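Researcher: Structure for this, please.
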Amino acid sequence: MVALVIVLTLSVVVIFYIFIIPFTLLQGFYLTLFHLLFGHWLLIMIVFNYFMGVFTHPGRPPQGMLPEVVSMCKKCIAPKPPRTHHCSVCNMCVLKMDHHCRIILQMFSLFSPY
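Model: Predicted structure, C-alpha cell format:
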C-alpha cells in the first residue's frame, strides 16, 4: 500500500510539472509563482500528514494498576480500561480505537493525529 501512495503522489507531481506549470508560464509570472508555492505547500502537507499517520503509535492501555477496569480482554488476557478494544489486525488492545486503516496500515485511536 505504501508503494501505491508513492505512485499516486508522484503522478500528481508529474502532471503538475508537465501540464500546469507550462500553461501558467504563458499566463504570467505571478500565477506561476502562486502555483509553485501553493503546489509545493500542498505536497509537503500530504507527505507530512501521511508519515504522521503511519508512524504515530495508536496508544496502548497503561500497564500495572489501573484506576478503573471494566472487563478483561479475552485475546490478551489483560484488564481493559473503558473504551479499549482489541485490534485483530495488530493483535493488541488499543485505547479509544476507531478503526484500522488498510491504506496507511495503522489504526485511528487515541493518539492519532487526525
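Researcher: Any notable elements?
Model: The mean pLDDT is 79. The longest helix spans residues 29-55.
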